[in-house]
Write a structure and sequence with these properties.
heterodimer, A: four-stranded antiparallel beta sheet, 11 strands, about 30% helix, globular, B: alpha/beta, Rossmann fold, 2 domains
Chain lengths: ~350, ~325
Amino acid sequence: MKVFTIDKKEWALGIEKAKSAYQVLGPVKEKEWHCFKALGKDEQPDMTYTNTRLSPKFLVQPQTEPMFTYTLDESRPDHHILKEVQEDVCPKAVIGIRPCDAAAFLLVKRNFDAPQYQDPYWLKAYNSMTFVGLACNDPCPTCFCTSAGCGPFHEAGLDVLLVDSGDRFLAKSLTDKGIALLAAAGWNSLADDAGKIEAMKQAAESRIASRISTDRLKAKETTHIYDAPFWEDTAFSCINCGTCTYSCPTCWCFDIQDENRGNTGVRLRNWDSCMFPLFTMHGTGHNPRGAKMQRVRQRFMHKLKYYVDKYDNGIQCVGCGRCIRLCPVNIDIRKVCNQMNDYDPAACVCPA
Amino acid sequence: MSGYQDKIKEVALRLLKDGSVDMVIGFRKGTLPMMNEPCFIRRPEDVHQLVWDSNCGINLANYLTDRKEKIAVVAKGCDSRNIVTHIIENKIKRENLHIIGVPCQGMVDKRRIISEFGDTLLDVADDGENLKIKIHGSEKSLKKTDVLQSNCAACIHRNPVLFDELAGELVPEQAGVDRYAEVNRVEAMSPQEKWQYFEDLLSPCIRCYACRNACPLCYCPTCFVDESRPQWVGKSQDPIDIRTFHFLRAYHCAGRCTDCGACERACPVGIKVRQFTSKLNKDAFEMFGWEAGMTLDERPPLDTYKPNDPNDFIK
């Protein structure tokens, strides 16, 4: 692990150099908000951005992803045979991703890269990427990463951590992939003030005023929280849209659909959301999560209890705050998490 | 504004105490600047949670659908018109409602303020006339009437049309506003320009259905986009399917939409969803002289037949 210094005057040149070895992706302002895009020649990532509107999870798990194609034309020898769609696995450099969004991929990876099953689509895309994170000097008021197992200078999930230090970036290489990218960009001047990063990290962390408590989630009896009376109140305002799940960097659920046009078709994988009634609708017409409250409860139980129990490695949330900022009716995961963490069935006095 | 709030609390307390309603549906203070959360209050001791300010844009008629309890509901002009529509469409019974009408002076366009000041905005204080915006190290004051939601700025039905009691004096209705300026602008475009405009408008859509779900009109047990046998609409990001959803939803709202702006307010990616419904509102007004939700005594034009219905479209 080394810390390099990159003069901002040399930054654009390095990005251009990196483009000869990588497809370079970075935050770009489109309409009102920032989004990750593949950068063309002379296009630069906007390193002054705060955060992308939606999470960059789509880089690895696109909202719509073709998996197979097929023909139904029986005169063709390959009819009714699924043919794999070739994925674009060229090396990609994701420049300026926020540490929380990169850490989110690691939480999701536990699902897509489990000992028993590996998801080839997700893994191929993920492994093709080198993540160059941009530390948050100015976290948003809705960021609660430091109490969600993450942080504004969090390194896990990144290959390089960049720290904006005025007229230059400090670049900390964290993996071999990161070293390779820095070399490809020609950023090779060692910094003589690497210690500065630690001070900036502490300053940024101290700016995060928003916190959640998760310490008691694991020990709680699942059925106690499941049956807690606060869910009715929590769920009341929810309109069951997919905003929280679709903006979340750690929500991974999907649905597989075949779409035919004429005699040809494609098998697609689309994002899906546990907020939608159709998500759990059985072929019989029975819906085990037919009521809104059950769906709201499921989302929070999954992130804050089932995931915690299954992997014993923290909550399924990195504290990016997107669901809080974007929820049309102000359902706030911080509040719900604290309610779950504090819930004591013995102390509960239910309204008559 | 605080007068409204006190009155709402007073009425809610009385109704809960004397048992004339089972619950009061209103707003409580949110956890973010410019956000209040719809809530229900069942116990007199919780009435203090109720708030009212210019961040109560969510349409509370949406929370009444098919409810069987006796409910008191806080309703500004547009909410009251959607309650009328709900009653006409048998989604709620008039006798189960106690409507606390709130004469409205418009809701603040939170999206506009966030897009100007960024996600690092710390606080927005509302003194009735002005908003004080606090960001790191600085403060700025904005005149509230300059930052209203676009539907509120052009609203001519601020006073509730149906209520049991009022939370404040009726307000003067706005005159001389051009409600259809945006529609006229799009109508003047060439077909190619329109195509490009709509394609661009819908390009950020992620199909979260927040627009549909925030809308009190969208109460179908199964929305056409969720039907699976047969499946009318594909589920991917195919622009044809995205357009189909938005266009069809808008048509389902024709002659029913009150232009409350809930759809636009809910959209996480800033799509001007009202572009579609406004056009149909204009058509309903021009063809049938109809504005949705103004009276309990008349059926909406598209669910009834009259011999003098316009038929100029038959050429």
